[in-house]
């Protein structure tokens, strides 16, 4: 059961490991570019592998539960599916329901753990395999794998690494499922990683440079971070914090390495931007054109 691109490596890994996949459950096709119905990444991967696909609007609907129950699966793996799994489904498989979550639980429970790891400045994150229960990312932990967050790594790159690590750990966990003792999470230390909103990316230069850097990296690929530059708001794709000083929003210099702008604390070197309706470009090109 999965929907987002993060889930595709786990699906492929289970298939290539020789497990018999009775059914791939994913979200329905949704309107995409020019409002054309677009299949989720997991649907595309399942079709490539020749696997049967089920796309219910609601997994808790009686007809959805009945279809899964009729298959009598031994195990269900859930990776970035996008709906809460009800008790009626959790009770179907003989060996339970496993979840691959992109954080070191109980830290960053919720829909956007990879983004929030960067937004909060975590230096280490990872993936967790847990047995699912009815509460959000609440079940006992079977396995974890840690990784450092690169100082310039954005959420898209980190998610790709964690997806691969999660797939590998899932295969190892399934192979040793009978040996592993579930460990209860420390619920008192849980933190939440809620779904992102478009307004999260609407930034101002009064923010500290370190915070701007976290937002630029942590809000990739959506909603992205926008800042005022050269007379308009532009999406900042890449940059890094520096130690410059000045009135927030003041361009301190423009050079081959980018455009340095004073922030609320320190300065930020804007390297690559995307103006509205245009392609990505070096920040110095935009500033030079508006000078």
Structure, explained:
By secondary structure, the chain is an alpha+beta fold. The protein has helices at residues 8-16, 41-49, 62-71, 87-90, 113-119, 155-175, 209-218, 283-290, and strands spanning 24-25, 30-31, 37-38, 53-54, 76-79, 97-101, 124-131, 141-148, 225-229, 232-242, 251-255, 258-262, 267-274, 281-282. The chain is elongated, with a radius of gyration of 22 Å.
Keywords:
single chain; 291 residues; alpha+beta; Methionyl-tRNA Fmet Formyltransferase, Chain A, domain 2; four-stranded mixed sheet
Write the layout of secondary structure elements.
Layout: H1 8-16, E1 24-25, E2 30-31, E3 37-38, H2 41-49, E4 53-54, H3 62-71, E5 76-79, H4 87-90, E6 97-101, H5 113-119, E7 124-131, E8 141-148, H6 155-175, H7 209-218, E9 225-229, E10 232-242, E11 251-255, E12 258-262, E13 267-274, E14 281-282, H8 283-290
Parallel strand pairs: 1-4, 5-6
Antiparallel strand pairs: 2-3, 6-7, 7-8, 9-10, 10-13, 11-12, 12-13, 13-14
